[in-house]
């Protein structure tokens, strides 16, 4: 997002970044840079307040500050408009509320689900009996989801994270001790990410992307923030039809209109609908609604957005967003991550220093074909150190997914050091073909 703003041709952009760490890209390109490891809204807003006279708007990326109401607090404190939803519309905050909201607006988008609230049961035994009954109904094929931000084991899927009821129960209880847990039907199909920009009045859909959530090749291992992603030259994906994409837009629009009311709801600014869909035999179903840009997915889109991103932000604030043009290019994002990421290794053995020089030089020679974006990377005494989350990604941009993938892989391989690794099957021909075949078989 910082890069997209800086590439504005119409404005001379000055960046003020409140960051989790000394991210080398942000440090290098900002006029002022401040570190708030937890991005606590109070601290972050104090920083912006200090620079209030020079700031036109504030763009928020990650979910925690949005959920904690950074916009509500920040606009009061600084008077600067924020491009993100208010706390009331951070749908991401509760998986239970999401399911209940969908039940009201578009129940066909929900899998069969049941909410287990600790206050509804007098003992763990009683909960267990009820859970067993529900598993009977689902034929055991269930997904366990904590209501809020994950403190237990997060989302667990039958057949992947547990293979029998006792294991499922253990997963369930690790979350249930902190609050409500949703137990829902395991959906079979292909996943995609739908994102739309919003000015509170209108919803403007962006091209579809495919995220690779699982840590390891062949979609195995634990869920991660996303190991990589792709976008086709079209607005939809190779295993979808244009109709599928429009159907997604249509249902998200219904959700939006329900929340918006009649004219405009200024609570819904920015990217309040980043919806993970599962394309099943009986149509699309919603896995999850997020109220922020998807990472890596937004990096598939911003580099090929034809509109000036600063103008897009101004029209979001002004309520004049009409449409957004995205270049008909395919893009592929591949992340390099630390050895411990996704539970691959127990300990970070090896040098944490990461050298971006070669990758950045390569990107410099491939203008508009390769971008290198550091993530959880810390600049210290002129050297970059990998932290524990996703370290750096390469975005390849080309006419076809295959070509974009080659460029992305060339870029990520030019990132040296840090004992980093990546998933080598992101957007591979085999992976995509498998999605196409599976979708065909499901729909037959
Ligand atoms: P979430 O955090 O809800 O997006 O879930 C993370 C991942 O868990 C998704 O990307 C899916 O791979 C998987 N998942 C979540 N819900 C379901 C479901 N009902 N059926 C199958 N897989 C699911
Ligand atoms: N790509 C997954 C996420 O942003 O939550």
Tell me about this structure:
- By secondary structure, this protein is an alpha+beta fold.
- It is built from 14 helices and 23 strands.
- The strands form 7 sheets. The chain has a 5-stranded antiparallel β-sheet with strand order 11-14-17-22-19. A 4-stranded antiparallel β-sheet has the order 5-8-6-7, with helices on both faces. A 4-stranded antiparallel β-sheet has the order 10-9-15-16.
- A hairpin with a 2-residue loop joins strand 15 and strand 16.
- The chain is globular.
- The mean pLDDT is 96.
- It binds adenosine monophosphate and glycine.
- Residues 111, 143, 145, 155, 157, 184, 186-187, 191, 213, 223, 276, 287-288 line the site of adenosine monophosphate.
At a glance:
With 444 residues, the protein is an alpha+beta fold. The chain has four domains: 2-86, Rossmann fold (3-Layer(aba) Sandwich); 112-185, ATP-grasp fold, A domain (Dna Ligase, domain 1, 2-Layer Sandwich); 191-327, 2-Layer Sandwich (D-amino Acid Aminotransferase, Chain A, domain 1); 330-432, Phosphoribosylglycinamide synthetase, C-terminal domain (Glycinamide Ribonucleotide Synthetase, Chain A, domain 4, Alpha-Beta Complex), CATH 3.90.600.10.
């Amino acid at each position: 997002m910082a890069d997209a703003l800086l590439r504005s041709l119409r404005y001379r952009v000055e960046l003020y970044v409140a960051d989790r760490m000394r991210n080398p890209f942000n440090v290098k390109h900002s006029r002022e840079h401040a570190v708030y490891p937890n991005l606590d809204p109070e601290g972050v807003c104090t920083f912006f307040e200090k620079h209030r006279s020079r700031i036109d708007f504030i763009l928020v990326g990650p979910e925690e500050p949005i959920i904690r109401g950074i916009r509500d607090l920040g606009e009061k404190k600084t008077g600067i408009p924020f491009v993100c939803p208010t706390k009331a519309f951070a749908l991401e905050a509760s998986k239970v509320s999401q399911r209940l909201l969908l039940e009201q607006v578009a129940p066909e988008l929900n899998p069969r689900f049941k909410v287990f609230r600790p206050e509804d049961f007098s003992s763990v035994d009683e909960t267990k009996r009820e859970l067993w009954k529900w598993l009977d109904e689902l034929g055991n094929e269930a997904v366990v989801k904590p209501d809020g931000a994950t403190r237990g084991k997060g989302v667990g899927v039958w057949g992947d994270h547990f293979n029998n009821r006792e294991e499922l129960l253990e997963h369930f209880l690790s979350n249930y001790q902190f609050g409500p847990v949703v137990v829902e039907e395991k959906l079979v199909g292909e996943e995609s990410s739908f994102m739309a920009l919003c000015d509170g009045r209108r919803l403007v859909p962006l091209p579809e992307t495919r995220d690779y959530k699982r840590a390891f090749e062949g979609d195995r291992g634990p869920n991660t923030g996303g190991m990589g992603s792709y976008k086709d030259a079209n607005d939809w994906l190779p295993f979808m039809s244009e109709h599928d994409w429009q159907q997604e837009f249509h249902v998200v629009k219904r959700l939006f209109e329900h929340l918006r009311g009649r004219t405009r709801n200024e609570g819904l600014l920015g990217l309040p609908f980043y919806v993970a869909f599962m394309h099943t035999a009986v149509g699309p179903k919603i896995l999850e609604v997020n109220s922020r840009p998807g990472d890596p997915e937004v990096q598939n889109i911003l580099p090929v957005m034809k509109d000036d991103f600063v103008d897009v932000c101004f029209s979001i604030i002004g309520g004049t967003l009409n449409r957004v043009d995205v270049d008909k290019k395919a893009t592929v994002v591949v992340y390099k991550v630390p050895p411990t990421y996704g539970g691959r290794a127990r300990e970070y053995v090896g040098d944490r220093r990461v050298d971006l020089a070669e990758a950045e030089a390569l990107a410099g020679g491939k203008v508009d074909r390769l971008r290198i974006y550091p993530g959880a990377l810390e600049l210290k005494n002129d050297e970059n150190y990998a932290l524990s989350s996703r370290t750096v990604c390469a975005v390849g941009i080309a006419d076809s997914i295959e070509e974009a993938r080659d460029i992305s892989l060339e870029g990520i391989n030019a990132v040296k050091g840090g004992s980093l690794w990546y998933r080598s099957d992101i957007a591979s021909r085999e992976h995509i073909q498998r999605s196409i075949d599976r979708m065909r078989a499901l729909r037959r």
